[in-house]
Amino acid sequence: MRIQAISDLGSARRLVVKIGSALLVEDGKPASDRLKSLARDLAELRERGTEIIVVSSGAIALGAARLDLPKGGRASLADAQAAASVGQVALAQLWAEALGEHDLLAAQMLVTLGDLEDRRRYLNAAATIERLLETGAVPVVNENDSVATEEIRFGDNDRLAARVAQAARADAVLLLSDVDGLFDRPPDQEGAVLIERVEGVTPEILAMADTGSSSGIGSGGMASKLEAAKIAGRAGIMLAIVNGTRLPPIASAVAANRGTVFLPVRSDSARKAWLGGRLACEGALTVDAGCVSALARGASLLAAGVTRVEGDFQRGDLVQIDGPDGERLGQGLVEYNAEECRAIMGMREGEQEAQLGYVPRAAVVHRDHMVRS
Ligand SMILES: Nc1ncnc2c1ncn2[C@@H]1O[C@H](COP(=O)(O)OP(=O)(O)O)[C@@H](O)[C@H]1O
Ligand SMILES: N[C@@H](CCC(=O)OP(=O)(O)O)C(=O)O
């Protein structure tokens, strides 16, 4: 069944539920009533046949309090990593107890960006989730903050939740936040209006989100939720943002049918969805206007159309593809390393072999390994 509305969520075959720090941690302590109420909601969904995967924030907020470290953006990376190490133990214990009250077994999965960027590791994570669900356990996922560095981390569990939903082939992602959904401007501004339904995360939609978290605890903000909606949408997965402050968090939101629903506008193949949801480009190729038209027709990216090469990437790495004005056109797996790309850019096929020293490949980025933004 395609999930088209918040009121449909109870019919989802497989649902990823993400809960932010601002809901789970209050003044450095667990919001126990809310966690217990959420666990009851999840147990009821399970009873009715929905498989559940939880993505839970809160490790840094809990750990920072226990270590008496600065919270939010003021914390250093080392502080955040130390806090996450301490907080994750507490967070896992809280989930084990809350789900255990309903005879549900919590299964902790800590993932790094690389676990979902690398295709082999992505499929490995997908297999683990599948096996856990088969056993009846409830995967409780968080970023492995204690080892994530600035450059290679999700940094927010919204996009992580969308990537987990892709890997798990879920029907929907539910982001529980401290706001009713996406408003046409930051909700504290005069006249802000709730956007109830979005089909396609356009630049206009992205512009509505003021980055950063209002709670000062969370790190995702609305911008990361919109990026998450784009990632989910590529895989044909609906994403909803609802207010999780009311108890019971999910049942209240489903009954009210209030929030923002992002409906998928395409359904790439599983591999293309994985490729489109990748977040870590190792370089960028700028192409000319002729190439922009060719890519729009579904062609591969040829060296003749490349006007600029940025980064120091290897063959097989993910690179961003930009138009002449810097607009992001898409991303894909590059067939040459950066040095070779610089050597053959702008050249027709016949000129390339002399530069490469071997017969050139069909394209710089083949259309089968490319997704458009
Ligand atoms: N256009 C917008 N619509 C809704 N919320 C917005 C918007 N722009 C900024 N925000 C802020 O984003 C916050 C939600 O993000 P965040 O605090 O990270 O929550 P979470 O802990 O769920 O990730 C809201 O509390 C709100 O103040
Ligand atoms: N991995 C981090 C959560 C990062 C995050 O996305 O937080 P939030 O914006 O509160 O959902 C933690 O456990 O604290």
From TrEMBL:
In what pathway does it function?
Amino-acid biosynthesis; L-proline biosynthesis; L-glutamate 5-semialdehyde from L-glutamate: step 1/2
What region holds the PUA domain?
283-365
Q: Which domain of life is it from?
A: Bacteria
Q: Which residues form the signal peptide?
A: none
Q: Which keywords has UniProt assigned to this entry?
A: Amino-acid biosynthesis, ATP-binding, Cytoplasm, Kinase, Nucleotide-binding, Proline biosynthesis, Transferase
**What function is annotated for this protein?**
Catalyzes the transfer of a phosphate group to glutamate to form L-glutamate 5-phosphate.
Write the protein's name.
Glutamate 5-kinase
User: Highest lineage ranks of the organism?
Assistant: Bacteria, Pseudomonadati, Pseudomonadota, Alphaproteobacteria, Sphingomonadales
Gene name tied to this protein: proB
